[in-house]
Amino acid sequence: DAGVIQSPRHEVTEMGQEVTLRCKPISGHNSLFWYRQTMMRGLELLIYFNNNVPIDDSGMPEDRFSAKMPNASFSTLKIQPSEPRDSAVYFCASSGGQGWQETQYFGPGTRLLVL
Amino acid sequence: DQQVKQNSPSLSVQEGRISILNCDYTNSMFDYFLWYKKYPAEGPTFLISISSIKDKNEDGRFTVFLNKSAKHLSLHIVPSQPGDSAVYFCAASYSGNTPLVFGKGTRLSVIA
């Protein structure tokens, strides 16, 4: 299995531009998570999908952030417009169950730099 | 307000010795705890977990200890190896469909 796949691995953009991060979860997994890692806040959950349905988006910082999961094998996290404070590493993770005690498998992350 | 705290940002240990990574939590509702390990340019990978009904869980060189009264858990690595050099994240959750809460991580360096 290829594991969780994220693209792009690195993104540099200018303030105000739209950024789209992509994630392909492990085949057969029915839960998908988007996390953001920063020095100040550590690793924080942005949004969680189960069976393609958003369950908890309380971590999404503001309306500039949106996430979709149109099918079981693909999800996007979009930032529009992007700001310098959005610079961080964004991780996607998937798990095979719907409980929080199921092991989550993380992708390699997308390092985003907003200038 | 940080519910899961890893107060040591870094730790340096000699190869062959024991590494002890600590984690404190404030929410007494937490009943499941995990450790994740992260290498540079990779995502975190699951290492070991423990339920609140236990006070110890062991997997090879890795042992996690849980002290519920102190709201404290620790990860012991014995013996430490250079390949263990990574950032270790502590995470916690509780029953009832709540998200994992991660600590900020501790960077372990194992010196040969």
Please provide a written account of the structure.
- The complex is a heterodimer of chains A (115) and B (112).
- With 115 residues, chain A is an all-beta fold.
- Chain A is 0% helix and 54% strand.
- In chain A, the strands form two sheets. In chain A, strands 2, 4, 5, 6, 9, 10 and 11 form a seven-stranded mixed sheet that branches.
- Chain A is globular, with a radius of gyration of 13 Å.
- By secondary structure, chain B is an all-beta fold.
- In chain B, 0% of the residues lie in helices and 54% in strands.
- In chain B, a hairpin with a 6-residue loop joins strand 4 and strand 5.
- Chain B is globular.
- The mean pLDDT of chain B is 93.
- The chains are: A mainly beta (115), B mainly beta (112).
- At the A-B interface, strand 5 and strand 10 of A face strand 5 of B.
Task: Name its key features.
heterodimer; A: 115 residues; mainly beta; seven-stranded mixed β-sheet; four-stranded antiparallel β-sheet; 54% strand; globular; B: 112 residues; six-stranded mixed β-sheet; five-stranded antiparallel β-sheet; 11 strands
What is shown here, in short?
Chain A is mainly β and 115 residues long.
Radius of gyration of chain B: 13 Å
**Rg of chain A from C-alpha positions?**
13 Å
Strand content of chain A: over 45%
Oligomer: heterodimer
> Major beta sheet of chain B, specifics?
6 strands, mixed
Q: Provide the low-confidence segments of chain A as ranges.
A: none
N-C termini distance of chain B: 38 Å
Mean pLDDT of chain B: 93
- Helix percentage of chain A: under 10%
What is the SS-derived class of chain B?
mainly beta
Q: Return the string of H and E elements of chain B.
A: EEEEEEEEEEE
Q: Can you tell me the overall shape of chain A?
A: globular
User: How large is the count of helical segments of chain A?
Assistant: 0
Q: Fraction of residues of chain B in helices?
A: under 10%
